[in-house]
Design brief:
Alpha-Beta Plaits, elongated, four-stranded antiparallel β-sheet, 5% strand
Length: 539
């Protein structure tokens, strides 16, 4: 099989197993969503509450994805998947029992779906970032596209199965299927082998890891642009999914089977779109790709809003379905390829949070809009919003990055302090002296601007660059880290790009000791009491 094949990642047995297990989980998830949405429709037909089912699932994915990403990066992705799958299995079983016994109210159903969304939020960053452990980087775009195909294969069949189950057995059966699917994932994940972890440094505190992730993406224009585009697209795009039960009931006069068939049509379109995604990526830039998909989704949304016949509605959801995975898988791939390994789960988590913020806010907005102007009018208004999102790309286009420069650079050797130190000793000031000729100052400052961004992204604080007043060729780069262990983490995070900047700076240096680093322990202004040991201050 050639590398250009969209199925090339299946050559890797570990990825094939991962994909099949994920397919089972997707079936359970989508069948559960059909059950929850139709149960709410039958209990309380108000558009606001029906749309809130999507919001109750999306809101925890927005709120808890970053802590989940920090946990996955810190404690291991496989372990995080197992914890979250166990929780999903338990909550789904409890929901099935409550539905079977008739104990659910509309708000009780929303509470259970919120808990399921919370467990899903804990699972997703770890699950998605595991892909890069299973395939080489050259196969990563195709692997992400195959994950999208798996999800949409389940979407094309799962909702119809869910509709049949709900119509013939009851909504509780959909929740039983989801519990069983998550149990299968839990058992399978317990048998997988995790890659060796770098345990030279102790695990990072969750709060510190979350801040490190936010700091990294906050200083990465590529990430910020992807996150904003994903949020805006999903803010308008969720209208189609959130209002689809109302389209099935009010515009088409159908029931749960009609709703399931509409979701299935969306899934079929998504599979066709994902199969053609690699060809589209090869033909156009990332920005043009995103613009085409946004316009296609807008067309499908508008057609669904205006349709009152089933064939046209199926065509509409297939058009939208073809556009949805191509755009989102392209954005997901961009995040994965633009993120160093040490922060990958957190970058994916923040991307996911932005997407689901769009889902949660959009689900509420379009539910309220449908209550005021009708389901069809709300969908047409959402299509207009999608046109605005496509136009936004003219102002802030998506860009790609040379991914090879994000590989870890492992040549840093940890210094051995000559004084007593513990991991929490600090603060630590790192200083580097450079002797730069006047004719090289402009290039030096340009490199230092890049280095400042990289230093702060990797955890440095209070970065400064100073020039000696009495010796103008002498420059000092300084930054602070709160503890000795954070200093070691900072240097361990260096990438090939950072090492390249360091080499170019070293080449500009005139004289001996090029790039020599000094580590200084900040001491208190007055000596400690006689009964206390002379150690570093705490950060």
């Amino acid at each position: 099989m050639k590398d250009s094949s969209p199925f090339a990642p299946f050559r890797h047995r570990a990825f094939l197993s991962y994909w099949l297990v994920g397919l089972a989980a997707n079936f359970g998830w989508l069948i559960q969503t059909v059950g929850a949405s139709w149960l709410m429709t039958s209990m309380h037909g108000a558009p606001e509450l029906v749309a809130l089912v999507q919001t109750s699932i999306a809101l925890p994915l927005m709120l808890f994805s970053l802590p989940a990403g920090a946990i996955a990066d810190t404690f291991g992705r496989r372990r995080t998947v197992m914890w979250s799958q166990g929780a999903l299995c338990l909550i789904s079983a409890m929901l099935a029992g409550a539905a079977f016994l008739g104990l659910l109210s509309p708000w009780g159903l929303l509470g259970f779906t919120f808990l399921i969304g919370t467990a899903k939020a804990m699972n997703n960053p770890a699950w998605q970032s595991m892909v890069s452990e299973l395939v080489p980087k050259s196969d990563l775009p195709a692997s992400v596209a195959l994950n999208s195909i798996g999800f949409n294969l389940a979407r094309s069949v799962g909702p119809a199965i869910g509709g049949v189950l709900v119509a013939s057995v009851g909504a509780f059966s959909a929740f039983v299927v989801n519990a069983a699917a998550n149990l299968f994932v839990l058992v399978s994940a317990s048998r997988w082998q995790s890659p060796a972890r770098d345990d030279r440094l102790p695990p990072e505190a969750i709060g510190s890891a979350m801040m490190a992730g936010l700091r990294y993406v906050g200083l990465s224009p590529i990430h910020l642009t992807v996150f904003l585009r994903g949020f805006l697209f999903n803010l308008a795009g969720i209208s189609l999914m959130a209002l689809m039960p109302l389209v099935a009931r009010d515009q088409l006069g159908g029931g749960p089977l009609t709703y399931g068939l509409l979701l299935g049509g969306f899934g079929v379109g998504a599979i066709l779109g994902a199969l053609g995604a690699s060809r589209l990526r090869a033909m156009v830039s990332l920005e043009v790709n995103a613009r085409i998909c946004t316009l296609g989704y807008a067309l499908g949304t508008a057609l669904l809003g205006m349709s009152t016949v089933f064939p046209l509605s199926i065509l509409a959801v297939m058009i939208a379905g073809a556009a949805w995975p191509v755009l989102l898988s392209s954005l997901n791939t961009t995040v994965q390829l633009s993120s160093p390994r040490w922060v990958l789960s957190r970058c994916l988590a923040i991307y996911q949070s932005c997407n689901f913020a769009g889902f949660a806010i959009g689900g509420w907005i379009w539910g309220m809009t449908a209550g005021q102007i009708g389901t069809g009018g709300a969908l047409v208004a959402a299509a207009a919003g999608l046109l605005a999102v496509a136009a936004f790309g003219l102002v802030l286009p998506l860009r790609t990055l040379d991914t090879s420069r994000l590989d870890p650079h492992s040549r840093w050797s940890q210094p051995e302090p000559e004084i007593d130190m513990v991991p929490k000793s600090g603060p630590i000031i790192t200083s580097i002296a450079y002797r730069i000729a006047e004719e090289d100052v402009e290039e030096f400052l340009s490199l230092m601007a890049e280095r400042r961004r990289g230093r702060i992204r990797d955890g440095a604080r209070r970065w400064t660059l100073s020039r000696d007043l009495l010796d103008p060729e002498l420059w000092h780069e300084r930054f602070k880290t709160p503890t000795w262990i954070e200093t070691q983490r900072h240097h361990a995070r260096r990438t090939v790009a950072g090492a390249d900047i360091a080499a170019r700076l070293k080449a500009l240096h005139r004289g001996p000791d090029a790039g020599r680093v000094h580590y200084e322990l900040v001491r208190p202004a007055s000596p400690p009491p006689a009964h206390e040991p002379v150690l570093a201050t705490e950060a």
